[in-house]
Design goal:
The chain is α/β, with parallel strands linked by helices and 493 residues long. The protein is built from twelve helices and ten strands. The longest helix is centred in the N-terminal third of the chain and has 25 residues.
Length: 493
């Protein structure tokens, strides 16, 4: 018996280890022996209406990754049943759809699994699950497709087909870049349309009512088209005039734009004032309406009295005037106006500002004096109330006459009724403090006008006139010149 040396035994052990490792790698890495015996795999049945060229050992993919193989294919009463052996490490949702596709032009069919929703709570496929035929799509039969294509080509006349091809070559010759852009644009359009499938589907679903309405209104559309054709025909007949209008319309529009530019600075102020006038006109719309109704009638009456003696024997034409001298009947109303000390001299020729307050006849409203005075004007915004000013109309204060309504008592600027002369809007009387809590000072325009003092010295006859100048007239207080005749004699220089 020959005994092997130690070195040979060492080499044999190393060779055995390498062989064992290589077989293990081949079995588990390439052959996948556990999968062949069913370890780490589960079976799912796939119902197909037709085989679609599918064969055992075909690849099964999910989202582009290989997840298993087709184990077997059997024919059933309703179609074909394929058993898929899937990898247990890949979780596939149960609501998947399957489609049979080709990897190349020569065949090599495979099964592609696609999820129908992104819901993470959907259960995964398990051993024994079935994908129904309603969720499976198979490609058309290539043989039948080729036969149908061949039949269609044979039905086309060869000469006409050649003519079509030649004309197509003439039409698209040299248009490669343009066609490429068309194809690229169509592809981008299709991709964008794929991202908006829901709105497009909604549009398609909701378009039938619109299209039906167009069909039902076909007569109206035809009438509209005929009338539009008539209008365009008239425009064509008047082409010269229409062209002249367009030629002259440009300068006219430019002039209009220039006019608007010129009035642009003042236009906002004008519009704001028009808004205020509109508010006033709306408040006094009833009075304006009555004025518009009575004005034509009044004009007619005035026109009818200019010839009162028409067709008579009088020698003159015109309106009869009857002068009746009624002195102080009715008496003038002085209540509510400036006292004599504050009145301007008639000799003044300047144009001063009007008093800040209101001057009017301030007698009681039920007085028979100046019945149509401003104190009895109805308030438009407050029905049933009469007041002389808008401020008093819109306030809660009633109309209060000056004193007892006829005469002043004491200082006219400190009346017993608490009102001043002239009358100011509520809260703006300069003689009174501002309302409590406001702390606002009165505007300068609300300051009371100064009382004009005209002191007269009987000894010298000196006095100050309203114009601020000094004058001297000694005979005003002379005992011998107190008759009315001396008052009619002009003063001696």
């Amino acid at each position: 018996m020959v005994r092997l040396p130690r070195s040979v035994w060492t080499q044999l052990v190393i060779l055995a280890a390498v062989t064992l490792i290589a077989c293990s790698v081949m079995s588990f890495g390439f052959v996948n022996v556990p999968a062949l015996i069913g370890i780490g795999r589960y079976n799912v049945s796939l119902e197909l209406p037709a085989s679609g060229g599918l064969y055992p050992s075909s690849v099964v993919t999910y989202r582009g990754s290989e997840v298993g193989r087709v184990d077997s294919i059997d024919v059933t009463r309703d179609g074909v049943r394929a058993v898929l052996k899937l990898n247990s490490s890949m979780k596939i949702p149960s609501d998947v759809s399957a489609a049979v596709h080709s990897r190349s032009a020569v065949g090599e069919q495979f099964v592609e699994l696609s999820p129908e929703s992104d819901d993470a709570g959907v259960a995964s496929l398990g051993d024994g699950d079935v994908i129904p035929a309603g969720k499976v799509a198979v490609p058309p039969d290539i043989g039948r497709l080729l036969d149908a294509t061949n039949t269609a080509l044979q039905a086309i006349p060869q000469d006409n087909l050649r003519t079509v091809v030649d004309e197509a070559d003439t039409a698209v010759a040299g248009l490669g870049p343009e066609l490429s852009r068309i194809v690229d644009g169509s592809t981008a359009l299709a991709i964008d349309a794929g991202k908006t499938v829901d709105p497009i589907t909604t549009l398609i679903d909701e378009s039938p009512p619109v299209l039906n309405s167009q069909v039902q209104s076909a007569d109206s559309i035809e009438t509209w088209a005929n009338r539009m054709a008539s209008i365009t025909g008239q425009l064509k007949a008047q082409d010269a005039a229409f062209g002249d209008l367009l030629n002259q319309g440009g300068p006219a529009l430019e002039e209009g734009r220039a006019s608007f530019d010129r009035v642009a600075p003042a236009l906002p102020m004008l519009l704001a004032n028009m808004v205020s006038l509109g508010d006033i006109a709306y408040a006094y719309r009833n009075d304006i309406e009555q004025l518009l109704v009575l004005f034509p009638q009044g004009t007619a009456v005035m026109s009818s009295i200019i010839l009162p003696n028409a067709n008579t024997k009088q020698d003159y034409k015109g309106i009869y005037l009857d002068f009746n001298l009624n002195l102080n009947l009715p008496p003038p109303c002085n209540t509510g106006f400036l006292p004599v000390q504050q009145q301007r001299s008639p000799s003044e020729q300047d144009a001063p500002e009007r008093p800040a307050g209101e001057l009017y006849c301030r007698v009681p409203q039920d007085s028979d004096l100046n019945v149509r005075g401003v104190r009895n004007v109805p308030c438009e915004t407050v029905p049933g109330k009469r007041a002389p000013t808008v401020e008093l109309c819109e306030s809660n204060e009633p109309y209060v006459p000056l004193n007892d309504g006829y005469n002043w008592k004491g200082d006219p600027n400190a009346t017993g009724s608490g009102q001043g002369v002239p009358q100011y809007a509520p809260g703006l009387d300069p003689r009174l403090p501002p309302p409590a809590g406001t702390g606002a000072a009165l505007p300068p325009s609300a300051a009371p006008p100064p009382v004009v003092a005209v002191p007269y010295d009987p000894a010298t006859g000196d006095y100050i006139a309203p114009d601020g100048r000094h004058y001297a007239q000694a005979d005003l207080a002379h005992p011998g010149n107190r008759t009315w005749q001396s008052m009619l004699v002009p003063p001696q220089p």
